[in-house]
Amino acid sequence: MPGQFEPLPGGGAAVALDDVEISIIRSLAVQLLELIGPGPAEDAPDDPLAELFAEGPSEPPADPVLRRLFPDAYTDPEGAPGPQRADEQKAYSAEFRRYTENDLRAGKRENALAVVRSLDALASEAAGEGGAVLKLTPQESQQWLRALNDLRLAIGSRLEIADEEDTDLLYRLPDEDPRKPMVMAYLWLGGLQETLVTTLMP
Question: How far apart are CA 97 and CA 91, in angstroms?
Answer without folding.
Answer: 10
